Amino acid sequence: MSTRQHPQTSVPPEALHKWLSILVCALHSVYFLLNMLLMQKIGLGAVQIIVAAFSGYCFYSSLKERYQPWQSYTLMALLTFNILASASLMEFWAGAIFWSLALPLWYYNLFGLKKGFCFSAMIVMFSAAILYLRTDTSLFMPYRTVFNFTLAYSSVWLMCHIYEVQRQKTSLFLRALALQDALTGVQNRHALKADFSAVRKKAESIHMLIIDIDHFKNINDKFGHDIGDSVLIKVANEIKQSIQDLSVYRLGGEEFIVLLKGISDIQAYEQAEVIRKKIEQATFHSHTDAITLTVSIGISSLQPGQEFTDFLRAADVKLYQAKHEGRNQIRN
């Protein structure tokens, strides 16, 4: 529904980018000196000083908290080009091609599963082509060299891919723990605040329904907390079925929230009435008895410039009014 802050299960891309930048800067500065001063590889040295300078800029930007995703793409493009250029231009025994074995690790961690897979696939083809064209001496057999390198590269690639798949599964699991109410399965207060921040930028009108189960304490006292929990679960399901939407949240205790977007005050009231009637007509069961419930509902309409806390407080005031005036009512 919205862009939220989710729990991280690994090093975030911006942090990895920062430390990769300083590593690349240091390594390419050293290689620049070696190529320019000792090996007289001026063209390659020029590429390496460009990579070193840009990676230094990336590190500085990260320190100043000015990281942008394009910096990672540009840095990895320059690094990849330098590795492939070095493998193509330098003596084969120098082993520059082995640096390509590290590329899948960086691709997956910086760019995720799909892009990591695509970039890694391109590199194995380029690297295999370079190896085949360069291993034309009597010391190496081109086919065996390409075969062994491809196997080694693919094993690294496979491990990176498996790790990223598992990381994404873990991230989804932690996201559910962080943003979902453990008892009822609806979303929780953290999700409510995040979704509110997102939808207020898009929707022309937003209404909040705060729903409170009338005399819920009596249910816990009479039937026990296990029955009280089952009642909360069924109430949550009844609300979800009433609005056919994911915008249902448990605020805490016996209070639930519904966010309605792009509708009028009258339509918001009508939707609240659907929820009220559905719960009033539903039958909840204890071990031996049937239980009937009612709910009170307060409605607030988001005003220009209103923050989440004020929006929630306005709905809570209307809920208190409904409670004070006899319960099983709606006030807006």
From TrEMBL:
What SMART domains does this protein's entry cite?
A: GGDEF
- Tell me the domain of life: Bacteria
Cell cycle in keyword set: no
Q: Which residues cross the membrane?
A: 20-38, 45-63, 83-105, 117-134, 146-165
The protein's UniProt keywords, in alphabetical order, are: Membrane, Transmembrane, Transmembrane helix
Q: Which GO terms describe its cellular component?
A: plasma membrane
Per the database record, which ranges form the GGDEF domain?
A: 204-332
Please name the top-level EC class of this enzyme. transferase
Q: Which GO terms describe its molecular function?
A: diguanylate cyclase activity
| Keyword ATP-binding on entry | no
Cofactor (UniProt): Mg(2+)
One Pfam family from the record = GGDEF
Catalysed transformations (reactions): 2 GTP = 3',3'-c-di-GMP + 2 diphosphate
EC annotation from Swiss-Prot or TrEMBL: 2.7.7.65
GO BP terms: namely:
cell adhesion involved in single-species biofilm formation; negative regulation of bacterial-type flagellum-dependent cell motility
Q: What is this protein called?
A: diguanylate cyclase
Origin organism of this chain?
A: Marinomonas primoryensis
